[in-house]
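I'm stuck. Protein, please.
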Amino acid sequence: MTDLLSTAVSGLRAFQRALDVTSQNIANAATDGYSRQRVELATRQAQAYGNGYVGTGVNVVSVRRVYDDFLVAQLRGSSSSHARLDAFAAAAERVDNLLGDSGTGLSATLQNLAQAFQGVANSPASTPARQSLLSQAGVFVQRMQGYDSRLRAMDAELNARIETGTVAINTLGEGIARLNAEIEEAYGRMGQPPNDLLDQRDRLVDELATHVDVSTVAQGNGVVNVFIGTGQPLVVGSTASQLVTSADPFDAARRGVALRTPSGPADITSQITGGTLGGLLDFRREMLDPVRDELGRITVAVTDLLNTEHGKGMDLRGALGGELFATGDAVALPARANTGSAAITVTRSDAGALTGGNYILEYTTGGWALRDAASGVTKPLAGSGTALDPYRADGLSIVVGGGAAAVGDRFQLQPTRGAIDGLGVLITDPSQIAAAVPVATSAAAANRGDASIGAPAVLDPSNPQLGSAVTIEFLTPTTYSINGAGSYAYVSGTDIDVNGWRVQISGAPLAGDRFDVTANTAGVGDNGNMRSLIASLDGPALNGGTTSVNGAIGSLVARIGIETQQAQVNRDAQDVIRTQDRAAVDSVSGVNLDEEAANMLRMQQAYMAAAQLIATASAVFESLLAATRR
């Protein structure tokens, strides 16, 4: 009789515990991060009788979470990737809207400036047209500086968000470390998993994954070590490491991420991946910095072209044109860790050869070495680095001055990023706009052949003989002289370069035909230089003479648009994957109310059956007592 009662009581207690767990599951059906729990039952040790073993009931072995480590890790990875892509896409959209707008974007800004030059070309003597050009040049400067200001503001915003992100990561790391200690203590005290604490820790790790890529490694007693990025330890046991923001080695205003260690902060900016923090760092490296550098390169190319062409022209006063625009200089930033006293001066020597990237100039045991800051590719250096013979590479001239350099000293060269800083209009008087070509061509009225001379082009406005009169006279149909000297072979349409200018004569001349090139003394209505200036914007100017300014602008705007669209598409696709991973986790760990209701009925019936067994055992025992009292 005792065996029947003991067995029934064990069942009653087991099913009561099962009902308690079912009740907990139902109560937390809407609790974020809750993993449904399950009672694990096992039969008690059977007792041996003469005719065999008879069971003695049931024990509650444990209450465990229904949990799949693989699915959870998969969800964290997709959540981290989605957070990265979302941060990248949101920031990229702002850059795309800034530079790609059809009315106020980069293409429209240059187009408006070109139209103002065309207005002067249409009416070269018109003061209102010239004044409109100067006004539009001022608008061009304001727009370019506005773009640069917005991009700088975004960079400052990134610094603040990086700071906020490190604080959030530190808070989560401390919470995980604290829960590790509590979980380890709970395991040691009871030898059973503290499910609610495990759920709390998982929620913190899940939230951490939205800030940065996360991986976990389980230890004994339920403790997990947490690593971020490419394997940097954030939590080891009950100890949490601290992230801090660190200054860029070359620019103290720019913030990176460092791991605090006993020997000092260790920079891990390049090792941060995934999550919002990884997305912000990727955006700065892959879009913001390249766009700022390319915008500066385009500014240098535009102003260099316009200044060069304008300098070849003649203004309303008969003077050669001066520079239209000023630009900021190239910059060499020394690393804060430098121990030597060398000073670097960098200038732009060839706008067409500029790449738009930055460089690291480092002093090594073999001398100075230059490498691309983004790719790390070494760049060959020509020259000796002196003022008379500077180092030359990718359109830059580099002069090493000051004292001696120490091995390991580094300088970051920024050829174009600061160009917009010093951008400004240098001409304020409309009459100083050089629309005319300073020389003019004419054909003698007595010419008998059908040859004609084209408009002149100025090659070297500094030539002292630029305005001197020159007569080109044909000695024969295939030879000519210049100012009565020489006998030069004539080929129709070939260049004739004299005194810093160039002309072409085409057609079939006869002996005695004469063409004159003289100073353009009556060039008030001439627009030849203005037409050349407008054409230069569509001429080869960048990438070694293969890309025009308009082409470079179109390429930049298109690249930003494509990268933004790709980020948006990738983000939306990753959101689908994240949703699927969430559904997979919920299908295992989530609470299904229909299933719990069925379990509740099943456990309730089992509980009632066990109670009935106890009543039966009591009745049998009472009958036995009554029989023995007779």
